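Sequence only, no structure available. Ideas?
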Amino acid sequence: MSVLRNLEARIEGLVEGVFSRAFSSQVQPVEIARKLAKEMDSHKTASVSQTYAPNSYTVWLSPDDHERLEGYTRSLSQELSAYLLEHARRQDYALLTRPEVKIEVDERLRLGEFGIQPRLVKPPVRKGDTGEQGQHGHTMVYSPPAKQKEPRGSRRPAAPLTQTKAIVSFHDRRYVLDGPTAVIGRSRESDCVIDDQNVSRRHAELRRNSSGDWQIVDLGSTNGVKVNGRRIDTSRLAPGDEVSLGTVSFIFDIEQ
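Reply:
I predicted one. Tokens follow.
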């Protein structure tokens, strides 16, 4: 068994019981570890002779998840740090310090969602310094996949679906939505919550078809939906499209 698999097994074993219940069997600790590695890959910086990777990560959890993790965060942070260190070694990334993983709470997240914010922190020059922090990256928010019901009375398997993910990027946050549908609105029950009075409680819905393409549908909102400045009721979305919900805008993208 590889070192990474050993670390994954230790992370799983560490949090059996309380931790798994905190995530309602939707988001697992190993999934957080893998997304941390993905963020390390996405935010690496190449110099003349080396490729540097972020060495400081904040994992944001919903209030309920964070509360149920009380007493486990330190051990989990250490295991996630070891996972990132091994990943950096395998990818031949240069690190200014051993990876540090902090686990914090974000009131905007729902049960099962988690966010990751990476940054590059230079080690302190003198004793007592806190270290120089580089520019903060976007906080990538990962949502649990929606459970799909199997059609009743089906005698033959349905055609395979293309499992793309929708990425919704605001100025400071990005949401990764697994689909096949995702509601955007002001309500806390929405898959993507926008805390703005110009946004309706259930403003719009993103829908993925069997080929992996996405469309946005206005759910009867007060202030409407625009795609690239054009008012729409429903519209197919392409990577890079700007979507406006009332006075709030985001950039749409697709992850294969």
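The CA atoms of residues 55 and 97 lie 6 Å apart.
Hope that gets you unstuck.
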